[in-house]
Amino acid sequence: MNAQAQFVALSTIVRKEVRRFTRIWMQTLLPPVITMGLYFIIFGNLIGSRIGQMGGFDYMAFVVPGLIMMSVINNSYSNVVSSFFSAKFTKSIEELQVSPTPSYIIMLGYVSGGALRGLLVGAIVTGVSLFFTDMQIKHVGITMLVVLLTALLFAVAGMINAIFAKSFDDISIIPTFVLTPMTYLGGVFYSISLLPEFWQGVSKLNPILYMVNAFRYGVLGVSDVSIAGSLAGIFVFLCIAVVYCLYLLESGKKLRN
Are 236 and 90 in contact (CB under 8 A)? Predict the structure, then answer.
């Protein structure tokens, strides 16, 4: 398969994925924005006014980067896991596998679609947050790099979940029982400096903590963890996830009956 054919295959998959979530935008784009808006009102205005400052900033300004990252993580993951499992369930993915399309093109197409949805929702949530706080980005490069790597990582993770899933119930287990608790305990709503030393150590085992804090550093210039270590960790996790996802696609063990 030459380069031009690969580009056509990739662009077709990406276009299909983008059309999929933009066509039903009232189900894919609007609900997370409304949810984040409620977080801004409840945690930012109502509760935040009683908390005061967190990490040297108003609580609303502190919590906004975490909520943006939460929306990016959830939407990047959910888009790919639902889309790829639907293709697997209807066996249309088998048509792609028997075609000359390389596995990395299939993965890149679905992951790009999921990452684009995550980034789009993140951008909309950022726009909504401007109604509640004056957000000025301190380090644009770090901010863009963190949000891009995070969106790609969770899009790949969603694809891995879809490959292993055997029913529609299986694609909700990880988001409900793993992803949501890790996100809420990942420093979205608080600084881990408030925790006892033991629980600070436990919190540092949560990879989402590093993503949230790296993004918060890019926006506000403050972080509870090392930024260099956070970026390196996100990149390593992404590489591992990509290699494993490619292995699963190449082997086809979880995709063929």
Answer: no
Structural contact between residues 158 and 84, judged by C-beta atoms closer than 8 angstroms: yes
* pLDDT tens, position by position, 167-218: 888 888 888 899 999 998 898 888 898 889 899 999 999 999 999 999 999 9
For residue 240, pLDDT over 90 is answered with yes
Q: What's the token pair of residue 21?
A: 């979530």
What is the token pair recorded at 126?
């950022």
257, pLDDT greater than 60: no
Helix or strand (DSSP H, E) at 81: helix 59-89
Residue from 218, 163, 211 nearest 187 by CA? 211
Evaluated on CA atoms 190, 66, 230, 17, the torsion sign reads: positive
For residues 171-196, b (16+ Cβ closer than 10 Å) or e, as one string? beebbeeebeeebebbbbbbbbeeee
Query: Alpha-carbon dihedral of residues 239, 244, 245, 246, nearest 10 degrees?
Result: 90
Per the structure block, which two tokens stand in for 23? 């066509």
The region, left, alpha or beta by phi > 0 then psi within -120 to 50, assigned to residue 256 is beta
104-114 in b/e form (b: 16+ CB < 10 A) is ebbbbbbbbbb
Contact of 224 with 191, CB cutoff 8 Å: yes
pLDDT given at position 131: 85
Rounded to whole angstroms, the maximal C-alpha distance in the chain is: 61
Residue 61 or residue 50, greater confidence: 61
pLDDT per position as a tens digit, 131-167: 888 888 899 999 999 999 999 999 999 999 999 998 8
